[in-house]
């Protein structure tokens, strides 16, 4: 038993003294590795809420209820009778600070084109509450939605 303990003691001491101990140079510059970016959100399902547009030149805001259905990388947003918003259907993708919508179809130019769900929007997501908006000139187009 003493020989096993002695052998264990010799191996342990050899292991600890055999480790390479790097001396720290206080003048040496250390390269900091940035943390990885946060994961992009995953949006799936039906989101219901309100669309609003603020026209600064007219000092007026118009709004109506709406919904957007997200599935895989596709979306549908039917047009309301009030034409707020004008809706759309296509694909969407996220990057670190925006969501981009691409329409499948071309729309007539008889309305404010920004009433169609298209282009890049800044977004926030918190506990099923999904807000995205874009500013064109002084006008603000905003979707304020909740997971249904």
Strand content: 35-45%
Percentage of residues in helical conformation: 10-25%
Oligomer: single chain
Main beta sheet: 8 strands, antiparallel, barrel
Number of helices: 1
How would the global form be characterised?
elongated
Question: Given this structure, which CATH class of the domain at 45-147 is correct?
Answer: Mainly Beta
Global structural class: mainly beta
* CA gyration radius, whole angstroms: 28 Å
Strands side by side in the biggest sheet: 1-2-3-4-5-6-7-8
Using the coordinates shown, work out and report the CATH topology of the domain at 45-147: Lipocalin
Q: Give start-end ranges of low-pLDDT stretches.
A: none
What is the first-to-last residue Cα distance?
70 Å
The tally of strands reads 8
Average pLDDT for all residues: 84
Order of helices and strands: HEEEEEEEE
**CATH architectural grouping of the domain at 45-147:** Beta Barrel
What keyword list fits this structure?
mainly beta; 8-stranded antiparallel beta barrel; Lipocalin; single chain; 148 residues; 11% helix
């Amino acid at each position: 038993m003493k020989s096993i303990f002695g052998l264990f003691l010799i191996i342990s001491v050899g292991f600890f003294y055999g480790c390479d101990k790097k001396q720290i140079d206080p003048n040496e510059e250390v390269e900091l590795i940035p943390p990885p970016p946060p994961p992009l959100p995953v949006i799936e399902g039906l989101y219901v809420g309100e669309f609003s547009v603020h026209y600064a030149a007219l000092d007026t805001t118009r709004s109506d209820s709406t919904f957007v259905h997200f599935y895989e990388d596709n979306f549908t947003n039917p047009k309301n009778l009030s034409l707020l918003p004008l809706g759309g259907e296509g694909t969407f993708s996220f990057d670190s600070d925006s969501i981009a919508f691409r329409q499948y179809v071309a729309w007539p130019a008889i309305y404010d084109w920004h009433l169609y769900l298209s282009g890049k929007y800044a977004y926030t997501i918190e506990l099923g509450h999904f807000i995205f908006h874009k500013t064109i000139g002084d006008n603000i187009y905003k979707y304020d939605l909740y997971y249904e």
